[in-house]
What does this fold into?
Amino acid sequence: MQNIIITAVHPGVWLKKNFIAPAGITVKQLSEETGLSDYLLGLIVEGEYTISEHAAQVLASKFGFDPAKVLAMQAEYDEAYKLAAAAQ
It folds into this structure.
């Protein structure tokens, strides 16, 4: 199977670049501060797992963004993935 190329940005990658890395914290620290699983957070920020509504709300509360933005990004990413996979 070939690699699937997706042009949409996974919300976890966006979170890592725009909030987590600039804050200078690790996934483990973020997990401890938010109560979210460090394993799942690690998968999310690497773009390997879907962000849930709960996680979006918790992270939005911590970093001060609209959780609807992250959920919309996830929906866009999921749709782009489906279209790219179907084109293969």
User: Anything to note?
Assistant: The mean pLDDT is 93.
